[in-house]
Write a structure and sequence with these properties.
This protein is mainly β and about 230 residues long. It is about 5% helix and about 30% strand. It has two helices and eleven strands. Strands 3, 5, 6, 8, 9 and 10 form a six-stranded mixed sheet that branches. The chain is globular, with a radius of gyration of 16 Å. The N terminus is likely disordered.
């Protein structure tokens, strides 16, 4: 199956999961890290056509572009591209790009989240992890993360440190950038072609999880988080 690109780092990642329960493979559509592409969910025998609303397949957009995010804040994802603003900035104001780390340093002067990503199928490419703060409306939306780690993938489990800007409540979305092209790739039907996951490993059936399902507390001494990739 050939891969095409067109995602941003997280919202897309997870909506894809929504389709994972269908006859399809995981539903995170791919592309240039952060962004989503629309995918319609077919009615089931248990629900009439009117009861099944269209959802968007998650898609990480890449460094070169970011796709427009849907109106529903729950159906979006952060992008691997430079931030182009949060939509609330006045014209002419420069966007501030969130910090990016390699995950090797566990003391950046503040609370540290020690992350272990499991079910890594191969030591190819990098594991991309986006940290989101407690602004629920920003969860998994393109460019709305507060920090990012790009760590070299290790087969089996990949561990790294993700610095938090302060103590508080956060959530993490990750994906395995297997070909290191800084994009969350998708395949046929716009479905995700690369593994993904979210903190606390919530079930993802008919769309990306709500912030409350992925949230965790970060204290002065940091936090320990284990995320299992969905392939």
């Amino acid at each position: 199956m050939s891969r095409t690109r067109s995602w941003t780092p997280f919202g897309r990642l997870i909506a894809a999961a929504a389709l994972a329960v269908s006859p399809f493979t995981p539903a995170l559509a791919g592309g240039d890290e952060p962004g989503w592409s629309a995918a319609e969910v077919a009615p089931t025998a248990d629900a009439p056509p009117s009861a099944v609303a269209p959802i968007e397949a998650a898609a990480f957009a890449g460094d070169s572009a970011s796709a427009a995010a849907p109106d529903d804040p729950a159906l979006t994802t952060p992008d691997d591209a430079a931030l182009e603003g949060d939509g609330g900035e006045e014209a002419g104001e420069a966007a501030t790009e969130p910090p990016e780390y390699d995950g090797l340093t566990c003391d950046e002067g503040g609370p540290t989240i020690r992350v272990t990503v499991e079910n890594v199928k191969a030591a190819d490419g990098v594991i991309v992890a986006d940290l989101h703060d407690d602004k629920v409306e920003n969860f998994l939306k393109p460019g709305r993360h507060v920090a990012r780690v790009r760590a070299t993938a290790e087969k089996g489990a990949t561990s790294f440190c993700l610095p938090a800007p302060a103590t508080g409540v956060f959530a993490i979305g990750v994906y395995h950038d297997e070909n290191a092209n800084r994009e969350f790739d998708k395949g046929a039907l716009g479905l995700p072609a690369e593994p993904y996951g979210v903190s606390r490993n919530p079930k993802m059936r008919f769309g990306p999880p709500k912030f409350k399902k992925a949230r965790f507390d970060v204290a002065e001494d940091g936090a320990d988080i284990v995320i299992k990739l969905k392939n």
